[in-house]
Design the sequence.
């Protein structure tokens, strides 16, 4: 290749013979450089691999690239940090302020809840006392009502028995059958009634008792009208007393039911 290049670059005129060696050297140098540039890449790579300086240069270039990359990452992190410092401080202060407000409110809520709890416990304790009192009052009222009901039942039974005896006595006297009445159980009932009626006129009581003590009542035939009148008056008095007792019993029942309803609500 160098020989061919030399032939091509030879001068074609005689006037240039004196300067030929210098021009020939320069042209050969240029050609050599050109040919060197045309050398294969593998040859250059091989020369670089064998060149220690190139190795150092390559290593420094790699280190420079790595340091540059790390520098970019550090710069990015620094910018993020500065952004957080610039804007995060305000957010943090706002969060702290909000937390302080919540803490204050929470303290107030806890205090209110504690007060409410104490009030509730006091109310519960009082309610328990009221409930116990209501139960006791209901038990006492029930006991009294049972006694009143039993007393009225006894009074009603006695009234019915006495009223039946009076009816029989009045009917017998009005029909002139006093003798048969005096031999009956109703005569004994009427005798006990006359003795137990403290509000009965004494003379009337004596007249009735004398009639009931006779054997057949014939001795009192003329007085049968008077005795019937006394017995009817006694019958009316008994009816009035029993009506009052019935009204009292009914009122007691209503009061008891109202009391039970009120005390059940207190429970």
Sequence:
């Amino acid at each position: 290749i160098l020989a061919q290049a030399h032939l091509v670059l030879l001068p074609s005129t005689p006037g240039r013979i004196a300067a030929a060696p210098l021009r020939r050297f320069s042209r050969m140098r240029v050609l050599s450089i050109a040919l060197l540039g045309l050398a294969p890449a593998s040859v250059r790579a091989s020369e670089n691999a064998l060149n220690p300086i190139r190795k150092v240069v390559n290593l420094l270039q790699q280190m420079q690239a790595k340091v540059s990359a790390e520098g970019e990452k550090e710069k990015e992190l620094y910018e993020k940090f500065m952004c957080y410092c610039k804007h995060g401080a305000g957010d943090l202060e706002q969060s702290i302020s909000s937390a302080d407000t919540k803490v204050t409110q929470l303290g107030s809520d806890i205090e209110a809840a504690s007060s409410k709890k104490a009030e509730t416990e006091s109310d519960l304790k009082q309610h328990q006392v009221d409930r116990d009192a209501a139960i006791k009052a209901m038990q006492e009222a029930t006991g009294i009502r049972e006694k009143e009901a039993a007393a009225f039942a006894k009074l009603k039974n006695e009234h019915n028995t006495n009223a039946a005896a009076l009816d029989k006595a009045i009917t017998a006297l009005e029909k002139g059958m006093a003798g048969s009445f005096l031999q009956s159980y109703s005569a004994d009932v009427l005798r006990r009634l006359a003795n137990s009626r403290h509000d009965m006129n004494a003379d009337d009581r004596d007249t009735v008792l004398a009639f009931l003590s006779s054997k057949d009542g014939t001795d009192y035939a003329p007085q049968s009208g008077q005795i019937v009148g006394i017995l009817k008056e006694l019958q009316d008095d008994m009816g009035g007393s029993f009506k009052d007792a019935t009204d009292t019993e009914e009122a007691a029942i209503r009061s008891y039911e109202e009391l039970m309803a009120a005390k059940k609500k207190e429970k």
